[in-house]
Design goal:
It is built from 8 helices and 13 strands. By secondary structure, it is α/β, with parallel strands linked by helices. It has one domain: Spore Coat Polysaccharide Biosynthesis Protein SpsA, Chain A, CATH 3.90.550.
């Protein structure tokens, strides 16, 4: 299993609110977002973590690499999170399934470890092509709603829903064939991660939802407080 982090967003909303630290190094409960994810990934069994980051983060990434943190990073300024994933393809194309998150995603450690176990179980039993982290805690400005059947297999992704149950949590467990769908999205000029998720369904991928209790996206200064409250629950 491979592990990857999308950490190449601009963090413009945080910057507008006075948070000048590059988003991967914003601290929640005293720990940088990127360091927290790497720690949790290693607890899940990751031998190395692949990261795509912006130029302003390279120096701090290099410090971690020199300190022995098992990571591989590439420096890019992609226009979207979907393009960030595409930049990671050379590091993910060795035939292994992979777990991916965005760097600003905060969840409970134990729940992520359970997510990874569930994904490994799915792969071993050949029960699907992907496990998508979702939550019924809706706090995002533009959430992606996830409709499922009773067995939690995903039926659709929608920008709006009158009776939402889940929204996407920014945590993805995917098989190598998902990269073929990603290439199709790039070739068509798609620009958003949610369009990639929709394309997975259109291409016949069998995706299942895995509910987290809460997922906080650290997009605003106030989200740092919310994330710290979640981790102290």
């Amino acid at each position: 299993m491979q592990y990857a982090i999308i950490a190449a967003g601009e963090g413009s909303r945080l910057l507008q609110e006075g948070v000048t630290t590059p988003k991967p190094f914003v601290r929640v409960c005293g720990e940088c977002l990127i360091d927290r994810l790497i720690r949790i990934f290693r607890a899940a069994g990751a031998e190395r973590v692949n990261v795509v980051c912006r130029p302003e983060s390279e120096c701090l990434m290099l410090e971690r690499l020199q300190a022995g943190v098992p990571l591989t990073y590439i420096v890019r300024t992609p226009p979207s999170s979907m393009h960030s994933l595409y930049e990671l393809v050379p590091l993910l194309s060795d035939g292994d399934s992979f777990v991916l998150t965005t760097v600003d995603t905060v969840f409970k450690d134990r729940e992520f470890l359970d997510f990874v176990k569930a994904f490994e179980h799915m792969l071993a039993r050949k029960e699907g092509d992907g496990l998508m982290g979702v939550t019924d805690y809706i706090d995002d400005e533009k959430p992606l709603y996830v409709k499922t059947d009773e067995q939690l297999y995903i039926q659709s992704f929608a920008d709006c829903d009158a009776t939402p149950l889940y929204v996407s949590g920014g945590v993805y467990g995917l098989t190598p064939k998902s990269l073929l769908t990603l290439q199709g999205c790039i070739d068509r000029g798609e620009r958003r991660m949610r369009n990639f998720q929709r394309a997975l369904l259109s291409d016949g991928h069998k995706l299942k939802a895995w509910p987290f209790s809460k997922v906080i996206d650290v997009d605003h200064a106030a989200d740092i407080v919310k994330a710290e409250a979640l981790l102290k629950e």
